[in-house]
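Technical note accompanying the year-one report. For the benefit of new consortium partners, we illustrate the data format agreed upon in the data management plan: each record pairs a sequence with a structure-token string. No post-processing was applied to the example shown here.
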Amino acid sequence: MKKLWSIIKNNKGFVIFIALLFVFRGAIADWHPVPTGSMKPTILEGDVIWENKMAYDLQLPFTDISLLRTGEPKRGDIIVFTSEVAKKRLIKRLIGLPGDTIKIQHNNLIINGNVVNYDITDEIAPTRETDRETGIYALESHTDLKPHAVQIQNKQSMYPPGFRGPNCLQVTEEVIPKDHYFFLGDNRDNSSDSRCFGYIPRSELRGHATRILLSLNKNDSYKPRFERFMEKLQ
């Protein structure tokens, strides 16, 4: 014990730094590598995203205990959450707010009875051939949903109209309950999201993903994608 105390005493600066880093990553901000393409073309495999952990709640570090609400999630936010149903951490786009009704039919998103607008354009496709996939790229927008890129394979969606239930089975369209949210991946035909896991309770939200810190191309020997470094997420 005396030896341990001596080590701590002789390395106070380093110990304080580690303690502050622990608090910083646990309650203020964090960074995460993204291993899958469920948010393509917005987020690519190998991107490391920056997460503002104080965007919605001040939480006890490394717990789901909220000490104080600091903000409200907005439609279109890209959010990191820990899904109890999925049993893992996910990053998806917030589409449905409490009180909304959401429906997806033949890859058309319908919010409160209004079909979302789609502007098809290849200009938003990934710049590198190794990151592109066959399909349609479009800007998706709605009255209170800022334009953002989505990727749709040129086929009927793998998901039936509706959402929720084991193995993404269809259920009746319903109103999203209080303090629950509906999430989708931007890669609409290759994303396990609220269509599978149902509504996500606020208590599972961890933070707002706002920027790409750095990016490594997993499909090309992990070469850096310098053009994506510090890119703001839309």
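Partners are asked to follow this layout when depositing records. Residues 2-232 form a domain with the Umud Fragment, subunit A fold (CATH 2.10.109.10).
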